[in-house]
Amino acid sequence: MTIHFNIGEAKAQLSKLIAAALRGEEVVIDKDGVPQVRLTPVPAAQKLDKEERRRRIDEMLARVDAMPMDRTTSWELEYDEFGLPK
After folding, report:
1. DSSP of 38-77
2. pTM of the predicted protein model
3. pLDDT digits (tens, 9 = 90+) for 1-59
4. In whole angstroms, how far apart are CA 39 and each of 2, 18, 35, 46, 59?
5. How far apart are CA 60 and CA 53, in angstroms?
6. Are the beta carbons of 64 and 54 closer than 8 angstroms?
């Protein structure tokens, strides 16, 4: 079932409309009788356990450590008369 509300009514009853959307009802907000917005629930975020988060962080750090680094070049910058890097 689709519930239609104009913007003014939706503003006054937003908490009820959110509850209806969370129950699975389709909530549409209209402006001058033309549908503008549909309220839909946000899917639940995937929760990772502590070990899984740690494993992913370790994988990222390992990839960073594996990146080649050129240690022969100097990181010193030369500056022009305005103090800007050349």
Report:
1. EE-PPPPPPPPPHHHHHHHHHHHHHHHHHS----SS--PP
2. 0.51
3. 789 999 999 999 999 999 999 999 999 999 999 999 999 998 876 777 888 889 999 99
4. 11, 7, 11, 21, 38
5. 11
6. no
Amino acid present at 7: I
Contacts of residues 7-14 at CB distance under 8 Å and 24 or more positions apart, as own/partner, are 7/31, 7/36
Query: Tokens 């908490």 map to which residue?
Result: 15
Tokens at 1, concatenated: 């079932």
Residue whose C-alpha is closest to residue 17's, from 45, 39, 43: 39
